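Figure caption, in words: inputs first, then the predicted bound structure.
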Amino acid sequence: MVMSHLLAKAALTLSVVAVFASCKGDGAKEKKEAPVKDSVPTVLAPGSSIKLDPAKKYIFLTWDDGPQPPGTINCEEIFREEGVKATFFMVGLHQFSASRARIVDTIRNSYPQFLLANHSHSHGFRDHYREFYSHPDSAMQDIYTAEKELKVPVKIVRLPGMNSWVENGKIQGPNSSLEVCKRLGSAGYNAVGWDVEWRFGRHSVPVQGAEQMAHEVEEKFANGTTYAANAVVILAHDRMFRDQYKDSLRKFVQILKQNPDYVFETIDHYPLIQKGK
Ligand SMILES: [Zn+2]
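Bound structure (zinc ion present):
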């Protein structure tokens, strides 16, 4: 029994050595025949630049305030089934349980389809925006806290309650947010506002229907009033898409997908953010 065990172990050791030797040999041979970069698929890291096609129109689905199940889970499921990319700007305080932490992990680990980005720790001191933006040191700390607790892989922020932009040092937004924007810019962060909002009413019920939303997106492209050319940033909130509104989201995505010029991308590939890299 002991003897056969030892023999088996010896055989295993030999075979491991043999495999290792053959790997090494094949690897060396392969290097001569073809460059390694051709044989290894490139794994894109969040925040890395891609080449944008000037003939295409880019759609950035940016969904705020998650994790907020069941909405977040419904959105994730629909985006996966429809094969479209999206960005989730999440709030640190909303990750208050193990199951919510798992949702955040899933989004973070689903790049390049999904990008996890920063929507602050406290959502602007729990929606007290005036106080949040008049205390820029605390606001910055709040954003840094979210980055740590959510393990946000990129320095891209959506400011709570403000349609403000910081891209490569250029700043735009409501006056009250400008000091925080300035600090974000100096610290190497980008902030992203939006071009079209899928609004919600009482109990977070979506205001526009799928066709209306798709029409608003088409209109934005057509009249060229977007923040960056050939790019529309759409804002919505995960919590709007409870089970009874899932179909509306799916329909919206399906209408947009019918246009062969539209490409869905994550916000790290937004033209003005990529430019400075
Ligand atoms: Zn928000």
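Residues 2-33 form the longest helix (32 residues).
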